């Protein structure tokens, strides 16, 4: 009964083994398909008949060659699979020849077995290399994304890196964020999630995918090409970002005719979405911390204003002017914000100055000035207990230093004075000279500017004085507006 059926892939393999055995032994062999309804009996219709029980002893590697000898006819057999084997017969001249052939057949089968084991190991190695390569690509993608997850990095930039890394790692046509909720809100994202791969995915395609995701529960979601009519969209893998107010999905799409996504790709995309969720959570916490810090700083400034009505609003104006100067100097936004905060708190040390001096309406004596000059150090000491404010301390401590080294409290000169303090020194002097004080009238803007011009390079940093004159219109306008708002506030209070 010769090969009436063909177990998948086995027929070719066993024919190849048969030819190899024939070459090694010189025997004439044939492949038989076993029919166990004849179990243990001679296969009918063959002459001479084949003993099936010979093929019943071994069905997987290492294969066991089997023999039967009747008179001077030796039957050779080996089973390569449950229903497939190789058999052959040979008439020999003597018992010695029979023994020689048995040994030859045994060696040939063992060689075949060894060759196949080597091939199997080679195949396993290839699979392993492919798997490791794939894993490496995934780890590399995750590494790239994790490196980009900095709170100082613009969110659009982070999403762009996620898109680029994931497209490469997943062999996808596009990767994007998508909104799809059961209430019908769907499509490309309008707010901070905008970007991000939506051009590559195509707006029409996103609407179709969003429609499929709308009522899905659970994540990840695998969509096959045939889920889309017409088949303009290939396989889609989507994972949902949890703990957001809207249903946001991270979606990867392949082109039509491409292989479907599998569990490894899902695992990668779940890792990316988990990192993204963590980042969004941290960003929320960071914003919350910023808000708390702003409230805290504001309450400190209010307490200073409450003690010293004469300088009410001074800190806010110095902060605002410092911000304009820093912006004009082209400093990064984080530095501009620090300078603003430092401006708000630059005189906070006056909390530690006695009322007798702070609220004095007569001209100040030398002793009074000596006490007032302690306020930068007092402010520094108060705020240095708060690590979160460490980066604004230079402005608090050094805003009364002078470029020529004759300022206080440390007598720093030139660039020894932190830039933050050099900027605030100009803003502080501008507001102090312009403002009305109990012991003197405020100067006109022209007078203030004359003094600033004369003090450039000795009292103040000449570059920052230049920045003042380059932005004087916006500074004066801002100052006047703040004074008006403050008066309105006082009247209505
Ligand atoms: Fe001051």
Strand content: 5-15%
Distance between the termini: 109 Å
Radius of gyration: 43 Å
Strands of the widest sheet, in order across it, are: 6-5-9-8-7
- In percent, how helical is the residue content? 40-55%
Biggest sheet record: 5 strands, antiparallel
- The coarse overall form would be rod-shaped
The poorly predicted ranges are 1-6, 190-198
Please give the number of β-strands: 9
Small molecules held by this entry: fe (ii) ion
Structural class by sheet pairing and helices? alpha+beta
Oligomer: single chain
Mean pLDDT: 83
Written overview of the protein:
By secondary structure, the chain is α+β, with helices and mostly antiparallel strands. It has helices at residues 10-25, 95-148, 155-170, 198-201, 203-213, 263-307, 314-328, 333-345, 355-358, 366-372, 375-383, 393-398, 419-434, 445-455, 462-470, 472-492; strands at 29-33, 66-70, 73-81, 84-91, 174-180, 186-187, 221-223, 236-241, 248-253. The chain has a 5-stranded antiparallel beta sheet with strand order 6-5-9-8-7, sandwiched between helices. Strands 1-4-3-2 form a 4-stranded antiparallel beta sheet, with helices on one face. Helix 2 (95-148) packs parallel to helix 6 (263-307) and helix 7 (314-328) packs antiparallel against helix 8. The longest helix is centred in the first third of the chain and has 54 residues, at 95-148. Residues 346-347, 375, 399-400, 428 line the site of fe (ii) ion. The site of fe (ii) ion has 6 residues, from loops.
């Amino acid at each position: 009964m010769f090969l009436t059926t063909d177990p998948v892939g086995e027929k070719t393999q066993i024919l190849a083994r048969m030819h190899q055995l024939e070459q090694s032994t010189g025997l004439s062999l044939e492949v038989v398909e076993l029919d166990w309804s004849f179990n243990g009996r001679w296969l009918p219709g063959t002459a001479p008949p084949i003993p099936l029980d010979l093929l019943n002893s071994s069905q997987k590697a290492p294969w066991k060659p089997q023999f039967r000898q009747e008179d001077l006819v030796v039957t050779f057999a080996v089973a390569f699979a449950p229903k497939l084997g190789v058999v052959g017969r040979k008439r020999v001249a003597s018992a010695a020849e029979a023994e020689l052939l048995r040994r030859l057949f045994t060696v040939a089968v063992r060689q075949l077995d060894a060759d196949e084991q080597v091939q199997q190991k080679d195949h396993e190695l290839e699979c392993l290399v492919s798997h490791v390569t794939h894993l490496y690509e995934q780890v590399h993608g995750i590494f790239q994304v994790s490196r980009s997850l900095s709170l100082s990095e613009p969110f659009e930039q982070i999403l762009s890196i996620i898109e680029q890394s994931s497209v490469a790692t997943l062999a996808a046509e596009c990767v994007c964020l998508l909104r799809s909720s059961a209430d019908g809100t769907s499509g490309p994202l309008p707010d901070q999630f905008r970007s991000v791969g939506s051009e590559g995915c195509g707006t029409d395609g996103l609407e179709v995918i969003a429609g499929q995701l709308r009522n899905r529960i659970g994540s990840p979601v695998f969509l096959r090409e045939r889920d889309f009519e017409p088949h303009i969209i290939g396989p889609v893998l989507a994972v949902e970002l949890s703990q957001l107010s809207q249903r946001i999905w991270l979606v990867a799409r392949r082109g039509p005719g491409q292989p479907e996504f599998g569990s490894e790709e899902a695992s990668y995309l779940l890792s990316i979405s988990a990192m993204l969720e963590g980042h969004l959570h941290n960003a929320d916490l960071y914003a919350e911390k910023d808000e708390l810090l702003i409230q805290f700083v504001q309450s400190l400034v209010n307490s200073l204003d409450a003690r010293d009505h004469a300088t009410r609003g001074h800190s806010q104006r110095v902060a605002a002017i410092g911000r304009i100067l820093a912006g004009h100097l082209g400093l990064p936004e984080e530095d501009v914000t620090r300078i603003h905060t430092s401006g708000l708190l630059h005189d906070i040390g006056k909390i530690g100055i006695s009322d007798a001096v702070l609220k004095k309406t007569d001209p100040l004596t030398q002793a009074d000035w000596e006490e007032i000059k302690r306020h930068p150090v007092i402010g520094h000491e108060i705020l240095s207990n708060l690590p979160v404010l460490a980066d604004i301390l230079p402005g608090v401590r050094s805003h009364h230093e002078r470029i020529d080294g004759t300022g206080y409290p440390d007598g720093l000169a030139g660039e020894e004075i932190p830039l933050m303090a050099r900027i605030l020194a100009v803003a502080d002097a501008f507001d102090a000279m312009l403002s009305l004080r109990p012991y003197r009238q405020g100067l006109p803007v022209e007078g203030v500017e004359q003094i600033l011009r004369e003090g450039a390079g000795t009292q103040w940093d000449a570059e920052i004085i230049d920045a003042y004159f380059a932005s004087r219109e916006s500074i004066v306008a801002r100052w006047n507006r703040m004074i008006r708002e403050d008066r309105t506030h006082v009247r209505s209070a």
